[in-house]
Amino acid sequence: MTFKATLRLALQALVRNKARSMLTMLGIVIGVAAVIVTVAIGVGARASVQSSINSLGSNLIIVQPGSVTTNGARSGFGGASSLTPADGMAIAQIPGVSAVSPSVTVRTQAVAGGNNWQTTVTGVAPTYTYIKSWPLAQGTFFGQSDVNASAKVAVLGQTVVGQLFPTVSNPVGQAILIKGVPFTVIGTLTPLGQSATGQDQDDTILIPYTSAMQRLTGQTTVNQLMVSAATAAQIDAVQASVTTLLEQRHHIVPPAQDDFQVRNLASIAAAASATGAVMEFLLAGVAAVSLIVGGIGIMNIMMVSVTERTREIGLRMSVGARGKTILMQFLTEAIVLSTLGGIIGVVIGLVGTLIVAFVAKWPTSIPLIWIVISVGFSAVVGVFFGYYPARKAARLHPIEALRFE
Amino acid sequence: MTAVVRVENLTKIYTLGDAEVVALGGVDLTIDQGEFLAVMGPSGSGKSTFMQIVGLLDNPTSGTYRFEDTDAANLDADARADIRSRRLGFVFQSYNLLPRTTAQENVELPMVYAGVPQDERARIALEKMEIVGVAQLAKHNSNQMSGGQQQRVAIARSLVNNPALILADEPTGALDSKTSEDVMRIFKELNVSQGITIMLVTHEPDVAAHARRIVTFRDGHVMRDEINQKRAA
């Protein structure tokens, strides 16, 4: 018997029992469709978790001033006044750095009309929204010309909008007083929610760092420099380069202590990759279980089919089919069913993914490798779960099979 | 004349738990080419067991069996399947056609296993269906046919590999007497005009009367082996 002849026999037998063939396939169809949809949702969820973690700044490197010792009392990091905007501009030249923003923080009172609110006013560069992956809700962010001019412009976080402008739908263009200095609102930020440590990140006002230094603090130094590495892989290299550069600029020669400190959010990046790994295991588990269930379905129906077709098998043997030929026919039937079921499952899964993406507004994407894996695995399931019933059919004795009622 | 089947001292013993059942207790029989033989006997006489061994569906417990030029008493399952495929034809009481399958596909089935190319299969199938008078049913599904039509299709199926011997196991058992007569006439015709060797197993004397030689089994032995005088005459 050639492979083609066996395949033809198997296809004839499957077409002859359309209803049963379809029901048998259903298990695999649902299994594979479930895998595709689960993977799509999982990949989407992972991307969405990744992007929330990125919004904390997983590629972020923070440079703070070092500690100072006054009469034997050490101030702790940030106590020294050693970082300047010029340090930030130098750091921006390092390869692998995509953006730098100084950060000058003042806790002060803001007033608009009859409302006032104490909040954190942060002086930053125009790159800040990029570094924090923080889009605007309304208006515009300030640009380099505003920084150069120490412009009196402000961008408000949503908590501040709610406290200062409870009745105004769009506060862009309104005037506010920050520490008695009049500023114009030019934009509002999208809500970011709480930070990992429970702080309300939306309770903030952003202004150009030059404005903050000249009009609010009167200092020439900044509280920190926020540095964004182009990729997560470059964080360590960038961190080392920043340290070397600042040591040169600040003329620090060992054994003298650095007057600054550089750190990154590596622990958050590690948590992100751990989350990804857990999700991969979860998906692999769901995939394996649903395909095995589908495979058992195939085995179940193939067993019933062998019993139901006992006389047919007896007849085939009596007209000259060898046991091996019968085995190959039944095995081929199982593989055709499971592979076809796998392909139909992929199609239904892709449609289901589109529906989920549309209805739940969930970002979904389906890596091609998972389509290959699920179709390949369903074929393997066919071989594995088809073999036992096929062997049972092949071992039937022709006389007993012919007599079977 | 050449012998198609030659058995000597053939026995078949089934073991059911501790009990041993002697189905065949030493049978000697020769079937020559061109014979039309009816095997008769009550149930339990061993006639069905004899047919299964002659039909190479099973091996005997002891004794010798020569099928054509082959020592066929101790072949393995694959070797028996190959001989069945090339040299034997079967007709069963319950027709055993594949359901939801056309008559022609049913007739072609033995040739599929024998590896006959497809266009030749179709040609031979139609030729044999013509002989038994069911060529017009080629495209009909087996379950749309009457019992007599199904049995004719089954006979056509038994003919496609030009077998040395056709084994018919109660071929009229499920048919009314009129249709039985028709089917038996086909067998007689095949025997007379095509020279095909036929061994018929039945318990009905009316059916056996169509054969030229009648062998009667009882308790695993050949009780009587006679020429059918009516037909021989």
Describe the protein's architecture and organization.
The complex is a heterodimer of chains A (405) and B (233). Chain A has 405 residues and is α+β, with helices and mostly antiparallel strands. Chain A is 55% helix and 18% strand. Chain A is built from 13 helices and 12 strands. Chain A has helices spanning 3-16, 18-56, 85-91, 128-131, 144-148, 158-164, 209-217, 235-249, 266-308, 310-318, 323-359, 368-394, 398-403; strands at 60-65, 69-70, 73-74, 97-112, 115-124, 136-139, 153-156, 175-178, 181-189, 204-208, 224-229, 260-264. The two termini of chain A are 29 Å apart. The model of chain A has no long low-confidence stretch (mean pLDDT 85). Chain B has 233 residues and is of the alpha/beta class. Chain B has helices at 47-54, 77-87, 103-114, 118-132, 147-159, 177-194, 205-208, 229-232, and strands at 3-16, 19-32, 36-40, 62-67, 70-71, 88-91, 165-169, 198-201, 213-218, 221-227. In chain B, the strands form 2 sheets. A 6-stranded mixed sheet of chain B has the order 6-7-8-3-9-10. In chain B, 47% of the residues are buried. The model of chain B has no long low-confidence stretch (mean pLDDT 92). Classes of the chains: A alpha+beta (405), B alpha/beta (233).
Relative strand content of chain A:
15-25%
Shape of chain B: globular
Most extensive interface between two protein chains, with residue counts: A-B, 25 and 28 residues
**What's the N-to-C terminus distance of chain B?**
21 Å
Give the helix tally of chain B.
8
The assigned structural class of chain A equals: alpha+beta
